[in-house]
Amino acid sequence: MIKILLAEDDVNLGILLTDYLNAKGYSVSHHTDGKKAIDAFSEASFDLCLLDIMLPEIDGISLAKKIRAKREDIPVIFLTAKSQEDDKIEGFRVGADDYITKPFSMEELIYRIEAILRRTRNHPLEDSEEYKLGIFTFQPLSQVLRSDNKSHKLTTKESELLHLLCKNRNEILERNYALKTIWVDDNYFNARSMDVYITKLRKYLKEDPSITILNVHGKGYKLLCD
User: CA geometry: angle at 37 spanning 31 and 43, to 5°?
Assistant: First the structure.
């Protein structure tokens, strides 16, 4: 059974979400503030986190940072209000996998949860698959980018994006293809999110100046590497 950590301070919405997700076969642990949520995360094992951005005690962004510090690979979905547009981008910066804007339909929430779980739990990679990028070795299955000096444990989104770039090395990775493959939807906020992840990957790879991720105007990105 998939276990979900739900942090939502609106008690009525929290109960509604909990009852609905439980009826769909998920096991939900609902908490009304960020402190209770991180305490619960520290004490139990979860498969996915649903976090409201506006939470008492510890806000959703800070909560996501604490969760990522404990476990980098767990999927995180933010629940946001329409007035929190800027917070969505900040959420992606701390490693969120998706967001859903209130009010939303329960069917849309289930769709987003299932899409993320398909990508993270049914990974179509072989154990032995790895890529050599200059001084780096990238292992998509374990989501590790390693050099002689450093080892980076990538988030799911970082790993999926780097994997697509590697499979299209020295060729253009079309922007819309990457968005629909990783984020499902190629909307504005997901596009901004991908830009954030490209910046993070460049930061990891800057140790080797022979590796470049180029912006190809109007088309996408190109990973240049010998």
Answer: 120
For 87-143, write each residue's pLDDT tens digit: 767 777 777 788 888 888 888 888 888 888 877 665 444 444 789 999 999 998 888
Residue 217 belongs to domain with CATH number: 1.10.10.10
Which tens digit of pLDDT belongs to each residue from 129-152? 789 999 999 998 888 999 988 898
Q: Give alpha helix (H) positions in 24-81.
A: 34-43, 60-70
Q: What is the pTM for the complete model shown? A: 0.61
Top-confidence residue, 167 or 118: 167
Q: Which domain holds residue 74?
A: 3-121
Structure tokens of 31?
């908490």
The one-letter amino acid at 104: F
Q: Three-state DSSP class for 34?
A: helix
In a domain, 159, yes or no: yes
Between the alpha carbon of residue 18 and those of residues 13, 172, 218, 221, the distances in Å are 8, 43, 42, 40
**Cα–Cα distance measured from residue 208 to residue 226, given in angstroms and rounded to the nearest whole number:** 11
Total domains present in the chain: 2
With beta carbons less than 8 A apart as the criterion, state whether 216 and 177 touch: no
Question: What tokens does 78 get?
Answer: 């933010």
Task: Measure the CA–CA gap between 109 and 25, rounded to whole angstroms.
Answer: 14
